[in-house]
């Protein structure tokens, strides 16, 4: 989850003062309670039933190769033994949302900040900020894929750059509609690669099976101009044909694009445009029902 405006109960917005300048803390794996491990088990088993046939091949393979299982919240030391070997990434524990520049600095150095806390039993379905289940179950399997590993590091570098240019909101949309909520068209069907979907039981079904959302081919300037939802399912999902497409994004110089989109109007999350390559034009019924109809 990368919702910079979402309120946080454990990190930055909770007024937390960091012990270390990079906001990292020790995971303290030994201190997790039986209840916390049980919450992980519930979430893990629910997603493990839903994701076969819905998660992309790279996600399934990454999960298979990692010490991530139902019985306990993974120990980051064990995850990093595998992850470092495979793509040079490591997971570092943080209390919750951290300041943008801290976040980008970590990503630029192949360190993925993961919430150390896990949601409470009454928050199983919806959570205000990224917890260890979203970050480890949702993001880490994809960090085992070399293309994604390079892409997210480049995103970190790009984030530090975008911040200096004052266009962080535009770049955040690219991350949001790929790393968090991206879909990929495989030969055997549409699949999830976005962590925000992969860690959510309800959005896993909604993103692929529901008639309500739009599904549109990914287009960089189009995505840069499209606002996103931080409080509910996405109204539009963007589709790529292969994860390697993301790598080419990393090699495009965004500066001219930032300059171009700065003076162009933004798009609402549910808008479909004449130039869109539309895979599914959604009914919008889910969000209309929440808006109390149009
Ligand atoms: C746009 C911004 O970089 C983004 O919202 C960041 C902010 N801080 C974060 N902090 C943590 N721990 N995890 C995140 O995903 C993010 N997202
Ligand atoms: N290529 C982008 C950085 C970036 C990398 C990866 C993903 C998205 C953006 C830039 O020039 O700033
Ligand atoms: Fe996330």
Structural features, described:
GO terms for molecular function: phenylalanine 4-monooxygenase activity. The protein is an alpha/beta fold. α4 packs antiparallel against α6 (146-165) and α6 (146-165) runs parallel beside α11 (244-250). Helix content is 45%, strand content 10%. It is globular and about 55 Å long. It is built from 13 helices and 7 strands. The strands form 2 sheets. It has a 5-stranded mixed beta sheet. The longest helix is centred in the middle third of the chain and has 20 residues, at 146-165. The site of 5,6,7,8-tetrahydrobiopterin (H4B) has 14 residues, from α4 and α7.
Q: Name the CATH superfamily classification.
A: Aromatic amino acid hydroxylase
Q: Over the alpha carbons, how many angstroms does the gyration radius reach?
A: 18 Å
Helix content: 40-55%
- Secondary structure tally, helices: 13
Layout of strands and helices, then pairs:
Elements: H1 34-50, H2 57-65, H3 76-87, E1 90-94, H4 100-108, E2 111-115, H5 132-143, H6 146-165, H7 168-180, E3 183-186, E4 189-192, H8 195-198, H9 201-209, E5 214-217, H10 220-224, E6 236-240, H11 244-250, H12 255-262, E7 278-280, H13 285-290
Parallel strand pairs: 1-2, 3-6, 5-6
Antiparallel strand pairs: 3-4, 5-7
The chain binds 5,6,7,8-tetrahydrobiopterin (H4B), phenylalanine and fe (ii) ion.
């Amino acid at each position: 989850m990368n919702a910079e405006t979402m309120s946080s109960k454990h990190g930055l917005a909770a007024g937390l003062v960091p012990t270390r300048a990079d906001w990292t803390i020790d995971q303290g794996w030994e201190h997790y309670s039986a209840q916390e491990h049980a919450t992980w088990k519930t979430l893990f088993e629910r997603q493990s039933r839903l994701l076969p046939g819905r998660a992309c091949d790279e996600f399934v393979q990454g999960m298979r190769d990692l010490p991530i299982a139902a019985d306990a919240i993974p120990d980051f030391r064990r995850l990093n033994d595998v992850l470092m070997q495979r793509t040079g990434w490591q997971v570092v524990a943080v209390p919750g949302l951290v300041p943008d520049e801290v976040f980008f600095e970590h990503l630029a150095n192949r360190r993925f900040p993961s919430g150390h806390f896990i949601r409470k039993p009454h928050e199983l379905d919806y959570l205000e900020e990224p917890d260890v289940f979203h970050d480890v179950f949702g993001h880490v399997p994809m960090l085992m894929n070399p293309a994604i590993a390079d892409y997210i590091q480049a995103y970190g570098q790009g984030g530090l750059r975008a911040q200096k240019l004052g266009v962080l909101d535009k770049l955040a949309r690219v991350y949001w509609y790929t790393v968090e909520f991206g879909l990929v068209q495989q030969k055997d069907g549409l699949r999830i690669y976005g962590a925000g979907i992969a860690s959510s039981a309800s959005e896993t079904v909604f993103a692929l099976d529901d008639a309500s959302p739009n599904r549109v081919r990914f287009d960089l300037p189009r995505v840069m101009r499209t606002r996103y939802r931080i409080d509910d399912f996405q109204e539009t999902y963007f589709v790529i044909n292969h994860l390697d497409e993301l790598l080419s994004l990393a090699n495009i110089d965004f500066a001219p694009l930032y300059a171009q989109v700065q003076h162009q109007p933004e798009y609402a999350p549910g808008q479909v445009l004449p130039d869109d390559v539309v895979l599914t034009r959604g009914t919008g019924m889910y969000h209309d029902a929440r808006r109390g109809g149009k």
